[in-house]
Give the backbone structure.
Amino acid sequence: MLSDFFHITDVFTIEIDNRIEAFFIYSIIDKEDTYLLNVTYNYDFAKYGLGVMLYYHSIENLIKRGIKKVYLGGGHYDYKKNSKAKI
């Protein structure tokens, strides 16, 4: 999946009891654009919304840093619909 174009630049995590239970991996391309490369979370914690919480936290952080476009890739996932992402 990673190529000369995509490099991991940022990883956002949630840790519970010293274990990473959710992460989002981004590749910042330039001062305004980034790609979301990978997302995962422990489904045992799904009812607590770890993935959604980390998604919004990471987007907020990227916006504060001047990122204007986040490319989320394909798929019709609820988090994209709920955040009004363009597909």
About this structure: The longest strand covers residues 19-28. The chain has two helices and four strands. The mean pLDDT is 89. The beta strands are 10-16, 19-28, 33-41, 69-71.
